TrEMBL record:
Protein name (record): SET domain
One CC-aspect GO term: chromosome
Superkingdom of the organism of origin: Eukaryota
SMART domains the UniProt entry points to: AWS, SET
Domain SET positions: 191-323
Keywords assigned: Chromosome, Methyltransferase, S-adenosyl-L-methionine, Transferase
A GO biological-process term: methylation
Segments forming domain Post-SET: 334-350
Coiled coil: none
Amino acid sequence: MVAEEMQRESPPKKRCLGEAPDIIPATELFFRCANLILPWLNPQELAFVAQTCKTLSLISKSITFHRSLDAARSLENLSIPFHNSIDSQRYAYFIYTPFQIPASSPPPRQWWGAATECGSESRPCFDSVSERGRFGVSLVDDSGCECEWCEEGYCKCLAFVGMEEIGNECGSGCGCGSDCSNRVTQKGVSLSLKIVRDEKKGWCLYADQLIKQGQFICEYAGELLTTDEARRRQNIYDKLRSTQSFASALLVIREHLPSGQACLRINIDATRIGNVARFINHSCDGGNLSTVLLRSSGALLPRLCFFAARDIIAEEELSFSYGDVRVTGENRDNKLNCCCGSSCCLGTLPCENT
């Protein structure tokens, strides 16, 4: 029976000597090129291309639709969609990184089109959770525990219990793997979230499921800046904000050293390159998120991580306190109105001289 089936199969077509190879139709070739190039374009470039012909307009609309489905570009465990019933803006454009990276100027381009599997011809691979990728920026040595598997409460790296302000996790120098229970914040976003457009506040990050108290939400990822670069960028952002609708996501963190004589300053800018944490808004009542500075063994710089301060229901906005509101003579002209809506809202967002 097998032999009979084999005989019925048509033999492969043999190309004669000198015969021209199969020619790809021009239309198919056009679509292939468009699908390879257009997902690399920013919104302004994509809009310009869409005006050239009907076919490119349809492809551009498809890309815009797919961008609205996942702000994380498949770099997180779950898709994080945009929802907008306020205006025609389908998504917010920025370069996505799940972790801290060195400052980049100019910012790199990043594929953002239809979601396809890593390794396909139309989408490059991104290593979003590798040890070197997450810790390479601040790696100083390979010190760490020798445990092959850490159980909570038994690992010598573990200092994070509950909601303390500073904690430790296993890092690249530890013998345990990525599944170690002492690497809670190193596995990316694992809860359903969504980005919702608000008439007053702009884009906001919302829970899309029930989140229990103490669960990890995400870290604040972006470009690590020197203080001079942070000040230079903040001056640019202030000028942009004075002439147009513009929102920056430059966060300054100060970690006071045990001696009390000095503090470590960390500048993370998620304005151009960042993750979903850039959409978390301020709340004058402290919000529903706790901020924790987490160090990983072998890393010089800590990471700012967000945990649920209480149970958070689905469709609830995620928020935290940006800091104390201090409107002085130097920054009075740069103050921003607060729209958090809490009962204790002070009407002004926290700000300082960067």
